[in-house]
Design brief:
CATH class of the largest domain: Alpha Beta
InterPro entries: Aminotrans_IV, Aminotrans_IV_CS, Aminotransferase-like, BCAT-like_C, BCAT-like_N, Class-IV_PLP-Dep_Aminotrnsfr
Strand content: 25-35%
Number of domains: 2
Order of helices and strands: EEHEEHHEEEHEEEEHEHEEEH
Pathway: Cofactor biosynthesis; tetrahydrofolate biosynthesis; 4-aminobenzoate from chorismate: step 2/2
Largest sheet: 9 strands, mixed
Radius of gyration: 19 Å
Number of helices: 7
CATH superfamily of the largest domain: D-amino Acid Aminotransferase, subunit A, domain 2
Pfam family, one: Aminotran_4
Structural class: alpha+beta
Bound molecules: 4'-deoxy-4'-aminopyridoxal-5'-phosphate
Catalytic activity: 4-amino-4-deoxychorismate = 4-aminobenzoate + pyruvate + H(+)
Enzyme class: lyase
CATH topology of the largest domain: D-amino Acid Aminotransferase, Chain A, domain 2
Helix content: 25-40%
């Protein structure tokens, strides 16, 4: 499978970036992960809008028009129906290592494909951890050290995800958004700089509205999460994942809940419709 790097399509092993790239030295860049189903990028416009917003958030402009992105994606995904696209835009190469942004710098643009991994739909364990990240979590920055350490802490404790808590309020997962079923209502924290505006999160809310599932965007106290009937994690790579154990305590009946089963069916039907459209 070929990758795209700064205008060229080439084998992964031949794609090389300078060690002076600001992405490497400072984590100075942003990224997107876009699922491809049936050979079509899923929720493409939404991902490209978020890319624009992330770039603007770090004082960059989108290096390519939407049509060019779509063209690159089309060439990379040819022949494989279901996979992910990973794209990364860094500030680019600068001859001198200096925190301040150089006046003249050209972005590094990289895109690759990766295979879809099976999703553990029978449910996963999660742990709550203190949200130690910076305060601009709405930007999909490649600077993921805190997320890496938090996810590893979760893995060390036998869990699949860390659910992050800031001042007693749930923000999101280390690489996912969080939903909880509280008093029969599907609840997720409202968008703010504390969390990434997940494309899957927005789709779940949209599908809930369309299908008469009661849902609200409302802050969740960690104590309310701990007594929630159901907890889900959402992301482009894991879709809607039920959490069956939180901090060693079972969630509901320790099985994927009834509302999850309903939303999972709705979500899969939506994917199928797009696949065959
Ligand atoms: N929050 C964080 C911190 C993430 O890294 C991700 C996925 N990369 C998400 C939420 C979920 O976003 P999406 O549904 O767009 O994949």
């Amino acid at each position: 499978c070929l990758v795209y790097l700064n205008g060229d399509f080439l084998p992964l092993g031949e794609a090389k970036v300078s060690v002076l790239d600001r992405g490497f030295l400072f984590g100075d860049g942003v990224y997107e992960v876009i699922p491809v189903y049936g050979g079509r990028p899923f929720r493409l416009d939404e991902h490209l809008r978020r890319l624009d917003n992330s770039l603007r958030g770090i004082r960059m402009t989108n290096p390519l028009p939407d049509a060019r992105w779509a063209d690159i994606f089309g060439r990379l995904i040819a022949g494989v129906h279901d996979q992910y696209l990973y794209l990364q835009v860094t500030r680019g190469f600068a001859p001198k290592r200096d925190h301040a942004i150089p006046a003249e710098v050209n972005p590094t643009v990289f895109v690759m494909c990766s295979p879809i991994a099976p999703i553990p739909v029978s449910g996963v364990r999660a742990v709550t951890l203190d949200d130690i990240r910076w305060q601009w979590c709405h930007i999909k920055a490649i600077t993921l050290l805190a997320n890496v350490l938090l996810r590893q802490e979760a893995v060390d404790r036998g869990a699949a995800e860390a659910i992050l808590v800031r001042d007693g309020w749930v923000t999101e997962g280390a690489a996912s958004n969080v939903f909880a079923v509280i008093d029969g209502v599907l609840t997720t924290p409202p968008k703010s700089s504390d969390l990434l505006p997940g494309i899957t999160r927005d789709l779940v809310l949209e599908l809930a509205l369309e299908n008469g599932v009661p849902a609200v965007e409302q802050r969740i106290r960690v104590d309310d999460l701990k007594s929630a009937a159901e907890i889900w994690l959402t992301s482009s790579t894991r879709e809607i994942l039920p959490v069956i154990e939180l901090d060693g305590v079972r969630v509901g009946t320790a099985e994927p809940g009834p509302l999850w089963s309903r939303m999972q069916a709705i979500y899969q039907a939506y994917k199928e419709r797009l696949r065959s459209a």
